[in-house]
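Appendix B. Raw example, untouched.
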Amino acid sequence: MNDSESDTLNNTLESYAAVLSVLITFSGLTSEVQEKIINSIPELTIEQITELVSVLEAKHAALETAGIDEALENSLKKIAEEYELRQNKYDENLIQTLENLAEKID
């Protein structure tokens, strides 16, 4: 491995170390699991480290968006309920109008 390749590899590993540090810290994993992950990193290949970063990023994204999904679901339920109430009111008014019209015709 030449100096350029070595520098590139070192830069890549430093970047992964910084990213992994943040992802592991905010992963929501127990400290025991975090410690096991950290202890296993020196034994991993660069491909395995890349995969670990991807998995932790996905877990972090899921944790960050969990509340958003619930809020969106609640918002959609509220919209559906309001629509149903308005539709029921409209239907009641239409039925009343048709009944009044039927009375006038008779």
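End of appendix B.
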